[in-house]
Structures are given as C-alpha cells and as structure tokens.
Amino acid sequence: MKRLIIIVLIAFTILFMMGCGSSGPPNEVNSIEDVSAPGRTIGALSGSASAMLARDLGLVSVVTFDDVDSMLNHLRLGTIDCIVIEQAVADEIMADASGVRVLSEPLLEYDLRFAVARENNQLLDAVNRAIEALENNGTLSGLRGRHFAGRNFTYRPPTDVPARSGYLSLAVSPDSAPFSYVNEHGVFSGFDVEVAIAVSDYLGVELRIIPEDVSELIPSVWFGRADLALGWLPDDVSGGIVNISESYADSAHVVIVRR
Questions:
Q1: Strand 242-244 vs strand 108-117: parallel, antiparallel, or unpaired?
Q2: Of the N and C termini of the chain, which has fewer Cβ atoms inside 10 Å?
Q3: Residue 179 and residue 173: Cα distance in Å, rounded?
Q4: Domains along the sequence of the chain with CATH
Q5: Across 82-205, where does the E strand assignment appear?
Q6: Which residues neighbour 203 within 8 Å (Cβ) at sequence distance 6 or greater?
Q7: What per-residue confidence (pLDDT) applies to 215?
Q8: Rounded Cα–Cα distance for residues 154 and 256 (Å)
C-alpha cells in the first residue's frame, strides 16, 4: 500500500509539473510576415499607437488590453497569437517576462522630425531649441508614453513664455493616425500634432494647420505654402530641398511572441 501511495504521488507530481509548465499552443509567429497571416489575433494596449497601427495595417483581429500583465498572460495561454507594442515598453517588460520573446525584426521603425525651409535657419534653430527643451522637461517623453504606451499624461502649456506673437503654419496629413488625423470632433489630433502644439507654445506663436497629402508635405515647405511639415521625414527623404530638425521621436513597434 505504501508503495502504491508513493507511485500515485509521483504520478500526480509529474502531471502537476507538466500542467504548470504549459505555455499554451506552440508559437506560429516567427517573422513579421507571419503577423498578418489569416486567422491571427493580435494583442495591443488600449488607446496606444500600436493598436491603431495594427488596425491600419489591416491585421486580421486586434484585441486590446488595459494592462501589460493581462496581455502577456493571454499570449502565454494562446488566446492571442502575438503582441504589437512600442519598443520602449517592450524593453521595460521583457526583463521580468517569462515564456515570451521579441522578434528580431521590428514591425515598424520611425524617426520623426520637422521639415523647415532651407533658407529659414532661424526657424530651424528655434525648433531645435524647443525640441531640446521639451525633451529636458519631460513633455516629449510624456507624449510618447501616452500615444505609444497607453500611459497617463496630460500636456500643460508653459506659463513662463512670452505672449504669443505671430503664427507658424504646419503642413500635416489628416489621415496618418496615430501620428496625425482629424478626430470625431473635426479637430486635428495625434502625436505629431501635439508635439507641434507644444513647440509652438514654447516659441510663443500661434499654430495654424494646413492639411496635406503625405506626398505633398515636403513640397508644401519647399514652395512656401507652409513654414513647417510633420510626418515620415527621415534624413534621406528631404532630398536636399528642405532642412530637417533634430528628432523628436525615434523608436519602433515590435512583436512579442511565445517562446
């Protein structure tokens, strides 16, 4: 009888350990191409840029979560196939996350800057000073955290700047969510737009927005229709016809999968 009890206990222990070690079904997402395969279910943080990006890319099914831990648990259990998340958030959570890994290739990389007319070095210098100041006082990191990681942040205009004098015209796309878009109230919104508002507040000028197609952002500055442009403006896009500011956002959206 004693021997039987020992055998039963050993068998129970083995079964228990097998159950505890289970991490859901095998991973089937091993490349960026696998993310958009038919039948995939993608997890993303509620209200984040990653969720909007996943939808805009036409990924089959996007499920949003209010917190990272719940989203990771669903990934381990197999109720979602992978997670799309901003690089900085992934870097924070992966140190303590078990049973998951990040694909080596990012889903999307971005390096966002202002385009300024070549002859307007004074404006370029002012924009670069504003970007540096907004980075130093936490405004840019706060906006990045809110738009890309679903964190709580409320932008408050500075109170120690001169009274507004003059205006800057900004060319921006109305349909490039989550970076720039027209919201349900007919107002321009998005990460790029809020950065531009913060820059104009810092400089003490009014911001006037000019909607432009993405292909017309650079020409709008080149031909003088706008003082500034925002959008996908890496160094090699300018073609030498406009100046490019310092970067106000440089990151990526990555994919987390089961091991």
A1: antiparallel
A2: N
A3: 9
A4: 22-108 (3.40.190.10), 110-251 (3.40.190.10)
A5: 82-86, 100-102, 108-117, 167-172, 175-176, 180-182, 188-189
A6: 126, 127, 130, 161, 168
A7: 84
A8: 28
